[in-house]
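Risk mitigation, structural track. In case the binding assays with zinc ion fail to produce interpretable data, a predicted complex structure has been prepared as a fallback.
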Amino acid sequence: MHVPDDAPARCPVCDAEYDSVSEHDAGLLVNLLDNERYRRVCFDPVLVDGEARVRFYHHTHGQTTLTDSGETTPVDAHLE
Ligand SMILES: [Zn+2]
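Fallback model:
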């Protein structure tokens, strides 16, 4: 696992604040059932030096209350 130093201040997927970000180059299992700390993890695929990676943005329960309306924000919402 790697923590990128160029991660944005807000989650690029849902635009909410996040608690932590990690970067992975291999598959892994994520189970947030009954997780007391995190409510949601957003997955943002990126290319780093030509290698495919996935960045995980971890949101706590408190950070999702404002944005979690049951709807998902399209990843391309910021495009014109
Ligand atoms: Zn997010």
